[in-house]
Amino acid sequence: MDTRSELLLAAERLFARHGIDGVSLRQIAAAAGQRNVAAAHYHFGDKPKLIGAIFTSRLAHIDQRRTELLDEIRADRVDDDPWHLCDVLARPFAEQAARPGSHYARFLARLYEHAGHTLETLPEYGLTGSAQQVIELLGELLAARMPEQVARYRVELAGRLLITGTADLEQHAEQAGVVDEQRLSWLTDALAGLLTAPARHADREQSGS
PANTHER family, alphabetically (predicted)? Predict the structure, then answer.
């Protein structure tokens, strides 16, 4: 493994354990076994660029896998089913979480916390691609079921649950080394239920108007 890859893995692990603000570039270099404590700064410049590089190192595989799953549900004509779309969102993260040495899901949870618990700031780090396609499909389905404001809020809540739930899956997969299909199914059930539950208050407002 080259120096850059060692630094990325060390950064991902330390950020996951101690938070984004709890780790310095010097600590990352030391954890990667580098005698030169400025190695992380040399290779990445600053912490935001290092975070972006972690995304780049992981997202290509995750994005490709999600695209494959999306193609599969389109071929099976179930791409209008919220549960299957939620599985397409969650499964690539869960599979990544089961890879040996992965701290990516927990790193993402820490970054989400650092970003103020909002998904809107994550795309600047590279969280785009197939995930955005699935979110747009879910948004279209929800728009036919509930007011737009409610749909947007549901998607935001689902994003939070996806991040924290996948971090939990990664924690459990650290020893097993495989995807816990039962927990993944529970997470997918929860995501689909959150998104599609009746908007009762909105219904009352509409009936009273």
Answer: HTH-TYPE TRANSCRIPTIONAL REGULATOR BETI, HTH-TYPE TRANSCRIPTIONAL REGULATOR RUTR
Taking the CA atoms of 44, 45, 47 and 53 in sequence, report the sign of the dihedral they define: negative
DSSP for 78-136? -TT-HHHHHHHHHHHHHHHHTSTT--HHHHHHHHHHHTTS-GGGGGGGT--THHHHHHH
Task: Give the 3-state DSSP-derived string for 130-195, with helices as H, strands as E and coil as C.
Answer: HHHHHHHHHHHHHHCCCCHHHHHHHHHHHHHHHHHHHHHHHHHHHHHCCCCHHHHHHHHHHHHHHH
Burial of 8 from C-beta contacts in 10 A (0-12 / 13-18 / 19+): buried
Global pTM reads 0.84
**Residue 37: DSSP 8-state:** T
